[in-house]
Structure formats: C-alpha cells, structure tokens
Amino acid sequence: MSEAPPSQTGEPTVFDEIFTLLTPDRLLRDERATGAGVSVAVIDSGVERGVLEEKFRAAGVTIGPIEGAVFRPDRPTPQPYTGHQSSPHGTTVADIILTIAPRVTLYSADVFGPAGACEVETVIAALRHAIDVWRVKVVNLSLGVPEHKLQQLPRRQQLQRAIEEAYFRDVLVFAAAHNEHPLTRSYPAAFAPPLISVDKGVFDDPLQFAYRLREHVEFQAHGKGYLGPFAREPATSWATPHLAGITARILSLKPDLKPFEIKTILYWMFQAEANRHPAA
Amino acid sequence: MTDTVLIVDDEESVRRTFEEWLRGAGLHVRVFVAPDAETALTVANQHPIDLAILDWNLGSGSDGLRLLEDLVLFHPDVVAILVTGFAHQATPLDALRMGVRDYLDKSIDLTREAFVTAVRRQLDRIRPAKRQREVNQSLAAFRESVEKILPIVQTSAALNDPVPLPTAVKSLLRFAGRAVGAADGALIIRHAAADGPEVMIAYGAEGELLPVGDVPFSRSLAASVVSRQEPALLNEFGAGTAGVLDLFPFEQGRRSVLAASLPVGGGTVVVLELFDKPAPGFSDADRRLTVAAAEVGGDLLRQAVAERQTHRLLFDAVEAALRASTGVQEAISPSTPHGPEDPPPASVMARLREGLDSDVNAVVDAGTTLALVEAVRGLAVRHGPAAVGHCTRMVNDLRHLLDGISDGS
C-alpha cells in the first residue's frame, strides 16, 4: 500500500524546510554562510597564492591553504602547482571567491596555454581532475574556450559531455557568459542546462545578483573585482566568481544541494528581492 | 672519430691483458671490456662498436659467435676477431659471413705483437669503410638540407621584399594610436616554445625595442589582457597594480591605458597597449576601434612573422647545408695534422719530381721512381723495417727471375 506524499498529509516537505530559511538576507548573512566545507575549483590562469594569503592576512581574514595543479596540452598528467599564476586573471577570480566566501577550500587549476587561450582538452582534463581528485562541489570557469576551438563537433560534444558529467556528479559549474561563449551558446535553457551562465552587472552590494534570462544567459552578478587594475572594469570574468562565491555561502548552510536546487534557490532569491523592491 | 673496440672474455686476466696491450699499442682507440654476453650487449646498446674481440667460449653455454650475431643487430658494420683455444672447431664460413675477420688461437703462443698486429690490421680495414660511411651520412644530410632549401628558393614570394617586423609594428602603432588619440603605444610579443625558453620583447611607437626589465610575462599587464579575451580600458591607471602584477618600465607612470591582444596564433602572444589619451581618456568607442585595429594588426604581424620564419628557415637550412658540406670536406680531406701514413704534401712531391727529372742519368721517369719510393715508405710506416727487408728480397728475387728469363731468351 502506497503512502500519500507529505504535501498531501500536511507534513513539511523539503521545500517547506528550505523556504522557511529562504530569505535572501537570512541565507547570505547567516554567520555560518562563509563557504566553510565547500570545495571550489578555479579553472583559470593559476593563482598567485602568496598575494592572496598576504592580502587576507592583512585584512584579518583567515583563508584555508590553496592547492592546485597545472594542466598543459602537451603534458598528459597535471604538473605540480607551485603557488604561482600564469597570468593575473586567475588570482583576481580567486580573490573574488575568497572575498565572498573566505572559508571555502580553494583549488587552482591552471589551464592557461602558451598562446594565451586554453585548449578544450586541457579544460576537460582540469574539470575531471577537479571532480575526481579534488572532489569539488563548485567549479568556476571564467576563462572561456575560444569559439574557433570548438568548431569541430566532436570537441564540442566532448566538452558538453564533461559538463554533463559534472552535473550528474552534483557539481555546479559556473561559466562566464562571453558574448560568443561556446558553453552558454550550447546550453541556452533556463533550468535544465547543467551549468550556470553568468553575465556582468553592476550592483551596490556584491552579494546581489539578478536572474536575467536572455538567449543563452541566465544570471547577472556583480562584475567588478578587487585585485589588480583591470578588476575595476566590469567583466563577466569577475561576475562569475561572485555568483560562485554566493553559491558557496549557500552550500555551507546545506552542502548536499543539487545543481538544479541551487538554480532554483538563486532564482527564488532574486524573485523574492524583486518582489520586495519592485522599483529596483 | 675514434674507433671503438669491445673485448669480451670470461677470464678477467685475459680481459686485463688484452686491454693493456691495446692501450699500450698507441692505436688511439676507445676500449670497452665485458665479462659476458649480457654486459657486452648493454655496452653495444649504449656505444658504437667498430671491432669486437670475442672469446669463443664465454661460459654458461654462450659463445662468441652467437654474441656476434646479437651485436650485429646493434651495429651491422661491426667486425670481429675471434679468440679461441681450438680454432679448428670454429665454423669458418659461418663466422666469416657474420663478420669474423680473424682468429687468434690461445692454444699456441698468443703474443702482444700477434694480438696488436691483428687488431691493427682490422682497424686499417675498418677506417676507410667507416670514413666512407661518414661521407655518405654527411652527403645525405647535405641533400636533405638542399631539398629543404629548393622549394623555398623556388617560391618567389619568399624572396620578395618582406615587411620587417619593426616596420610592421611602427605602422600598427601609428594607425591604432591615431585612431584612438593615444599619445604613445607599445607592442609586447611573447613567444613560448614547447620545451624551450620563453622570449619576450617589446617595441615602442617608432618600432624601437623597449626594455622589459625582469618582469615575467605571468605577472604582466599583457598576460592579464590576454586572459580576459577582450580589450581592456583603464583611465585611472597606476593604482591597484601592486601584488598581482608588475609593470614594464614603459608602462610605469602612465595615466590611462587601452590594451588588446592580437590574434597571431601558434605559441606567440601579442598585446597592443595604447597610453595616455588626453582627458576624458579612452572611451568605449576607442575600445571598439582597438578591436578592429587588433584584427588588422594581427594580420600584419602574422605576415611579418611568417616572413621572418620563412627567412629563419632559409638561414637554418643554409647553415645546415654549410655544416654538412664542411663535414663532407673534412671527411674527404681531413684537416687533421699530417699522419705518418699520409703521403708527403704535394709541394714536397713536386720538388722531388723536379729534382729527379733534372738527373740526366736517370733510367726511369721521376713519377715511376716516386711511386716506388712512396710504396716502400708506406710499407715501412705501417709494417716496420722487417716488411721493407721483405720487400727488398722480393725486388731482388724479381730481378733474378727477370734476369733468368732475359738470359734464357
């Protein structure tokens, strides 16, 4: 004999539990919402560990040890991370995540190739390493794969498959929504796509964000960073780690949330704020 | 090139004796010794072997002939001297076919002289063949180089007047700078070979080279621009650079910067940086213009770099051809100091010939006389006074023979 679902018996459902907690302020300003217990991989151009350690130490904020690996197209296995960046971009991205969620466990996957762009295979290798070896919950992909490198269908499918694998392993992938970004172009729908595409916006508070469904973009987050001269210039590269950091904060309250649940929560948080402040 | 001799014998005393004899004979050879077949093959795997002196019985059921079969796999041109206590048991035809060129019999007195003579005889045979192989290799390298050059030479485009890189850079910076109203500009080029060192250079607005100091690319503004994948604009430049990046000397003190990476491809990264547009500074329209300039500049630079690479290839090929031809020349006419076996210099021979020709009593011409003298000299150098004595006896015998025939007629 089958039992009636909780919604019909009047017992609280998982959504009731979530929604009672779910005011944006309550969620994000909760003292436990620090990113603690959440592992985040920054697949980018490497992270200058010493710079971040010094910056947060000076600010009186404790951050965990940053680990990582270096991925190169000509090397079959990842190379040891020496604590240095291949370009300042990755350090600025990592700084944003640590600024929003200072207690995350951060991993740097340096995929910055010699010609300045990353290869599809290198990104896939880094993504799989982040999931299988580092067992991260969140992946930040601010460094895009140029469109021309995905012209071949098998390569595009390979990347899609890797992103889907992440989704089915409960890993959230945040990708910067460049105008011609191949990932977001490949995954245009609202909730079903296995990654979260992020565009830039300017917000008063870096914890603010917006749901703006466009052709192949879902969310907008704060587009300014905090480290380096270009961080002041709005960019999707800086918006993405803001939303990844916000998600890390939410995950530190409830670590077992699935990607679609996170998307729903992010969407709901934006709607709740929009309803409270319709003029804004 | 020094010849290499490998001695393989399971008796340590024999190995040591042979090695001492070789080293004492002034043969100028490199000597390796091995107690068994396995060690010998390891040596052969790591070094070229010209002559192998192999014990017939190496113990453990192994023999020198079987080892030679394996050595030939490593060095097909290896020749061998077989050392055996029972030469009659060897299979001469098989051995000869496999590269055994001499036997030394342990059962009779094996003296230093006999050993050294046998080795010297084989080395004398090896050397010309070896030199021939080296000549062939040099010629093959030469042909390969020439084959590489020919298509380039035949392509008239490669010999057209190329766009020198500094000129291309100057044109690009002038165009981009004027388009957006920048006061100055620079172009940073960084090339990272697959396993080679990283090269980074910067050009100024006049195409001149700019110092880059000791700033690594990974901490540069240029690297930051490249990884953004879109032009970057800063009108309050200077603040906030500490820590995450370092500035090149020509970037320091700038008020504003507009930077974009140029699509050049390969392992080369090129970044265009424009500086100091008067107030209110660079705008989004300038950014869009820079995108267009970057596209055009990328094409221009690709062309200039391609020309340089073509020329580099040409220079490399010519250089390789020259090296190869030098190798051929050296192999055919060694420039090494004159050896005792070499004939006297041509000038000396010419003087001798003049002297002989001037002798009115001469019964044979100077060329014939000199040929005989040179033959006897060569014999003396290579085989000592005993050989010359033998030669004298043969000449006398021949004379007696011819005298007898003459008298009989």
Detailed description of the structure:
The complex is a heterodimer of chains A (280) and B (409). Chain A has one domain (35-276): Rossmann fold. Chain A is 39% helix and 15% strand. Chain A is built from 10 helices and 9 strands. The relative contact order of chain A is 0.16. By secondary structure, chain B is α/β, with parallel strands linked by helices. In chain B, helix 2 (37-46) packs parallel to helix 3 (64-74), helix 5 packs across helix 9 and helix 10 (346-357) packs across helix 11. Classes of the chains: A alpha/beta (280), B alpha/beta (409). Chain A binds chain B through residues 44-46, 48, 51, 54-55, 74, 84-92, 95, 112, 114-117, 143-144, 146, 178, 227-233, 235, 237, and chain B through 192, 194, 217-219, 221, 223-230, 232-234, 236-241, 243-245, 261, 265-269.
Would you summarize the structure shown here?
Chain A is an alpha/beta fold and 280 residues long. Chain A contains ten helices and nine strands. Chain A has a single domain (35-276), classed as 3-Layer(aba) Sandwich (Rossmann fold), CATH 3.40.50.200.
- Count every beta strand of chain B, where a strand is a DSSP E run of 2 or more residues: 11
Low-confidence stretches of chain A: 179-192
Trace the largest sheet of chain B across and list its strands: 8-7-6-11-10-9
Query: CATH homologous superfamily name of the largest domain in chain B?
Result: GAF domain
Work out the helicity level of chain A: 25-40%
Q: How far is the N terminus from the C terminus of chain B?
A: 55 Å
Helical content class of chain B: 40-55%
CATH architecture label of the largest domain in chain B? 2-Layer Sandwich
**CATH topology (fold) name of the largest domain in chain B:** Beta-Lactamase
The sequence of SSEs of chain B as H and E is EHEHEHEHEHHHEEEHEEEHHH
Question: What name is given to the CATH topology of chain A?
Answer: Rossmann fold
Q: Would you state the CATH class of the largest domain in chain B?
A: Alpha Beta
Q: Residue-averaged pLDDT of chain B, rounded?
A: 75
How many individual helices of chain B?
A: 11
Radius of gyration of chain B: 37 Å
Number of domains of chain B: 3
Largest interface: pair, residues per side: A-B, 36 and 32 residues
**Amino-to-carboxy terminus distance of chain A:** 51 Å
- Mean pLDDT across every amino acid position of chain A: 84
